[in-house]
Design brief:
Elements lengths: L1 H34 L16 E2 L3 E16 L2 E8 L8 E4 L3 E8 L8 E3 L19 E8 L5 E6 L7 H6 L3 E6 L1 H5 L10 E9 L1 E2 L2 E2 L2 H4 L9 E4 L2 E2 L2 E4 L3 E8 L6 E5 L5 E6 L2 E9 L2 E3 L4 E7 L8 E6 L2 E8 L27 E6 L6 E2 L11 E4 L3 E9 L8 E5 L4 E6 L2 E2 L7 E2 L1 E4 L4 E7 L4 E7 L2 H5 L3 E7 L2
Bound molecules: CU-O-CU linkage and copper (II) ion (2 copies).
Amino acid sequence: MLNSKILRWGISFGLIVVVLVFMVLDFKSLFTKTMEPSLQALPIPPLLSPSSSSLNEVVFTLNAQESRHAYLEGDDVASYGYNGSYLGPTIVVQKGQLVHIQFTNELKEATTLHWHGLILDSTVDGGPHSPIKSNTSIQIDLPIDQEAATLWYHPHLMSNTARQVYLGLAGFLYVEDENSEQLNLPNTYGVDDIPLVIQDRVVVNGHVISYEEAYQSDGTIGNEIMVNGVLHPFLDVDSSLIRLRLLNGSNALSMTYRLDSQASFYQIASDGGFLNQTVELKTLTLSPAERAEILIDLSGLSKGQTVKLLANDQSILDIIVQKDQMNAQSILTTLNDLEPAIDPLRTDRTFSLEGMMSMVSINGKVFDMDVINEQGILHQEEVWEITNVSGMMGAMTHPFHVHGVQFRVLTRNGIAVSESEAGYKDTVAIAPNERVRILITFNQLGLFMYHCHILEHEENGMMGQISISEE
Ligand code: C2O
Ligand code: CU
Ligand code: CU
C-alpha cells in the first residue's frame, strides 16, 4: 500500500519536473526568438531595367544561374537565382504592353519559366509542357492584358519544381495600370513600397540544410522564416504609411501574419489586383503562392521605435521608424470597381482534393502529362466546386491554383467569403472538409494546369489539366 503510494507520488513529481523543464526550455526559445535583435538590413530585390523599350514594347533579359547564398551570415549554401545568387529581380510591366523576355538557362539542368497569375495563352505560360534545356536561350512574348496586380514568376518543370523554387528561383512581377498609378498609395520601390518574399527553411545548428535533407513528401516545412532570403532582417522607414507586398513563397507552409503591437493593418490587394475597398485586419493568412498587399500606419511613432511583423508568431521583420511620425495619413478606402461576384447556383465542375504525402490526387487521379482531364470553352463563365476530402490518412489545407486565369471566390461551405478574399484570386486555400465555390472564366486558349501549390503535392501528382478551345 505505502509503496504504491510513494511510487505514485514519485511518478507525479517526476512528471511535474519534466513539464517544468520543458516549459523553461520552451520559454527560453520563445524569448530568444522574439528578443533577438535583427542584424541585417532587408535585401530588396533589384528592379529589372529593360534592355530596350519603346512606347508599348519592352525587352527584359533574365538568366537562371547556379550560385551560393547565405541565409544566415557566414553560412553560404548552394542556391539558384535569376540574374543573381538568390531569388530574382522585380519586373514591372504596364497593362497594354507587349513584354519580351530574353531568357537564358545557365543551369546544368532544364527549367521552365512560369508566370504565376498572368493571363496568357498556354504557349507562353511556362508550365511543365515547356521545358527549357540547360544552356539554351529563348525569347518569350507576354502581352499584358490585365489590371494592376502583384504576381510572380518561378519554374514549373515536371518533377523538379519544388527543388528549383526552394533553391531560390522566384521573383516578383508587378503589373501597373492607370488605376494603380492614380491611386494615392505608397509606390516608391523599396522605400515605402516593399516587396517581401517570405519562405521557411530548415536550420540545424546555425546551418541551413539542403533541400534533399529537408525534404518531406507532405510538403517541405522549415523551422525558421526568411524574408527576401535572410533571417529576421530590419527595414528603416521614413514615412508614416508603408505598403508591403507579401508573397508566401514557401513550398508548403501557410503563414498567418500580424503585428507585434496587435495593431490593425489594411489589406488593399489580393492575388490578382486591388480589392474594391480597403479591409482592416489584425491577422492575415496566406497559403503557399498567395499574395496580398497591406498598408501599415506608422503615424504617431517616434524615431527609433520598431514595429515587428510576425509570421506564425515568429518575428520575421523589424520595421524601424527613422523620424518622428507626426502626421497621420489618411488611408484610402475605395480602390477598385469590380462587379460583385454572384453565385449562379449551378455547378459546372467539381474537384475533390484528397490525400497526404505521396498519396495525393484530384478527383481520384494522379497527374499524367498525356491525359487531358477537363475540356472547357473560351469566355464561358463556370462555377467550380472544390472540396477537400478527408481520407483515411486525414487531410490538410491545399492551396488550389489555376493557370492562365484570375477567378473570384464565392463561398466557403456555403458562406460568402470575407472582403479580404472577394477580389481577383489565382490561388485559394481549401481547408480540410471545406467546399469552396469559385467563379472562373478562361479568356485564353490552350492547356492550363490546376494544382495544389504545396509544391511537393503538385510533384506527387496533385495536378490536372484543362484544355480550353473555341467551342
Ligand atoms: Cu505558381 Cu502552377 O504555379
Ligand atoms: Cu501558376
Ligand atoms: Cu496539397
